[in-house]
Specification:
The chain is an alpha/beta fold and 261 residues long. Helix content is 39%, strand content 16%. The N and C termini lie far apart (41 Å).
Length: 261
């Protein structure tokens, strides 16, 4: 019996088979879940990637900045859910920042339209996605956002860091408002993993170099599986009273101030 037997999950943010979202979907299937993916832009690529899962998954288009696509999301997902149209979980793994918002000095120079796009796509969309899925969610459902712990300022992360802080706050307010419906909302704060998104961050190597030496459990930037397993755990029924929380999957990096001996 798998951890997610009988669960129906919507997974966003799959771009390549190196994506954290792809590995979360893969492990969720291995644990018994049925998966529906969303894609944006390069839909044929996402559809090809969906064929690489243990069981090919359907893909629906979703631009989280498009109100029409959000308004019709539940309707477009429903045909893929069989006779009982419900979702038991949603993974928000979406983030974007224009180049002007990342890199040394970007915080002081990025123009507001670019900052606004960063905040909308990377943080506000967590609320947008949750609301779009509400018609399919009921008591016991779990909404999870992919996070990078931004309780402190990071080199070169700049406005994406601010967006992650906003995402963490959105999580708490969603947990407040959806809790009475029996819906849990949490974020998983992952350590750095080499994904397409990571490649777009200037100076990402600085994160890689620091993490393994400081994390008490060590850290492998080439291994997305520990993060994906954590996501699946939070999507499962095994954290029934955990909501509004940041759940770390970072080897313990957040807990120590200097590198371990």
């Amino acid at each position: 019996m798998g951890l997610l037997d009988g669960k129906r999950l919507l997974v966003t943010g799959v771009i390549t088979d190196a994506s954290l979202a792809f590995h979360a979907a893969k492990i969720a299937q291995e644990q018994g879940a049925e998966i529906v993916l969303t894609g944006f832009g390069r839909m044929r690529l996402v559809e090809r990637i969906a064929q690489r899962l243990p069981r090919p998954a359907p893909v629906v288009e979703l631009d989280v900045a498009d109100s029409e696509q959000l308004d019709t999301l539940a309707e477009r997902v429903t045909p893929h859910l069989g006779d009982d149209p419900r979702l038991d979980g949603v993974l928000h793994s979406i983030g974007f920042a224009p180049a002007s918002c990342l890199g040394d000095g970007a915080f002081l120079t990025a123009p507001w339209p670019d900052v606004a796009q960063t905040l909308q796509v990377s943080a506000y969309s967590f609320k947008s996605l949750a609301v779009a899925c509400l018609p399919l969610l009921g008591p016991g459902a779990s909404i999870v956002g992919m996070d990078f712990d931004n309780r402190q300022a990071w080199p070169a992360y700049d406005w994406m860091g601010v967006a992650k802080s906003t995402l963490e706050s959105v999580c708490r307010y969603l947990a407040r408002d959806l809790g009475p419906r029996g819906i849990r909302v949490n974020v998983v704060a992952a350590g750095p993993v080499r994904t397409m998104a990571a490649k777009s961050i200037p100076g990402f190597a600085a994160f890689e170099d620091a993490w393994d030496g400081r994390a008490p459990l060590g850290w492998d930037v080439n291994d997305p599986v520990p993060v994906a397993k954590t996501v699946c755990a939070v999507l499962s029924d095994w954290l029934p009273t955990t909501t509004g929380s940041m759940v770390w999957a970072d080897g313990g990096f957040h807990a120590v101030g200097v590198a371990t001996p």
